[in-house]
Design brief:
globular, alpha+beta, binds 6-O-phosphono-alpha-D-fructofuranose, D-Maltodextrin-Binding Protein, domain 2, 339 residues, five-stranded mixed β-sheet, Fructose-1,6-Bisphosphatase, Chain A, domain 1, eight-stranded mixed β-sheet
């Protein structure tokens, strides 16, 4: 039986790879681990604990009904970041504005964290997998001062680390610090995340594709061309692909990371800027996708190169296996050349 490597050990061992690391990022990652265990516990009890199931009733900045579990998760992560001392400020899907922590220790925090505490929360009531997504940057403002909006509005290519927690049939934490992607599964019997998916690589191609095809007539025609390509006998496998769309981004992304596939959520006539949020959904998953050999683009550009202008800005999002994303780009460009 091979040695169990816990996430804590892995983070400590990985720190040794950074000769000048002073441990702050390791401590921040461990803070995320602790918060995720709290959220995992609450997610697992959602069906049993009446007071956190169902909508909070408030409407968040996204115009979506705020589920109580969203609020619980948001508070759990913010509490860890605010008390951990490594983070000077945060931005979250559940908070209209960013939050600059005011304690003396936090003002000297080297990092900011942007996160979606519980993405896919509309699936809570039907017991479908949901997830937390996080993105970590070094602050650009001066140490010892309050975090600023400039700290939050950095392009994805400046990320120091990114990851997600998937509350699925098991709870998994997957992350990168720019040196590959590794996956850890929470063992509830010992309360530890254990290395279960070392050095994750996204297969270059697959026979899986996923999008909300209800949008097929109101998005870029090149995407409809791609879906028809997948459904035909003239594709690279000479047989129709299989459609896989859970409606929960982290779950769809995780499946594609392991089995290969593509997730498409384009701009549409009803969502002309796209639906997914750049800073705390698209960027962190794009970092992971690229680190695992995949791609992440909008209809026109590499997601990680987008210069953000607002906290909750959205973008079209096409991410997954390299060959499949390149095929979508080819068909989009072909249509554009015909205009
Ligand atoms: P639709 C959940 O609200 C989410 O942000 C993602 O997790 C998911 O992939 C997408 O929206 C689903 O959107 O329009 O297909 O219901």
């Amino acid at each position: 039986m091979s040695k169990i490597i816990t996430l804590h050990e892995f983070i400590m061992d990985s720190q040794a790879e950074f000769p000048f690391a002073s441990g702050e990022l390791s401590r921040l990652l461990n803070d995320i681990v602790v918060a995720s265990k709290v959220v995992s516990r609450d997610v697992r009890r959602a069906g049993l604990t009446e007071d956190i199931l169902g909508a909070q009733g408030e409407i968040n900045i996204q115009g979506e009904e705020q589920q109580k579990l969203d609020v619980v998760a948001d508070k759990a992560f913010i509490k860890m970041f605010e008390t951990g001392g490594e983070v000077c400020g945060i931005a979250s899907e559940e908070n209209d504005d960013f939050v600059a922590f005011e304690s003396e220790i936090s003002k000297f925090g080297k990092y900011v964290v942007l996160f979606d505490p519980l993405d896919g929360s509309s699936n809570i009531d039907v017991n479908v997998s949901i997830g937390t997504i996080f993105s970590i940057y070094r602050r650009v403002s001066e140490a010892g001062t309050l975090a600023t909006m400039k700290d939050m509005l950095q392009p994805g290519n400046k990320q120091v680390a990114a990851g997600y927690i998937l509350y699925g049939s098991s709870t998994m934490l997957v992350y990168t610090t720019g040196h590959g992607v590794n996956g850890f599964t929470l063992d509830p019997s010992i309360g530890e995340y254990c290395l279960s998916h070392p050095n994750m690589r996204m297969p270059e191609k697959s026979r899986l594709y996923g999008m909300n095809e209800g949008n097929i007539e109101i998005c870029h025609p090149g995407i409809k061309d791609y879906v028809q390509y997948c459904q035909s006998f003239e594709n690279d496998f000479e047989t129709p692909y299989s459609g896989r769309y859970i409606g929960s981004l982290v779950a769809d992304f995780h499946r594609n990371l392991i089995k290969g596939g593509i997730y498409i959520y384009p701009k549409t006539k009803t969502a002309p800027k796209g639906k997914l949020r750049l800073l705390y959904e698209c960027n962190p998953l794009a970092f992971i996708a690229e680190q695992a050999g995949g791609l992440a683009v909008t209809e026109k550009e590499r997601v990680l190169d987008i210069i953000p202008h607002t906290l909750h800005q959205r973008c079209g999002y096409i991410t997954g296996s390299k060959n499949q994303v390149e095929k979508v780009q080819e068909l989009i460009a072909k249509r554009d050349s015909e205009i």
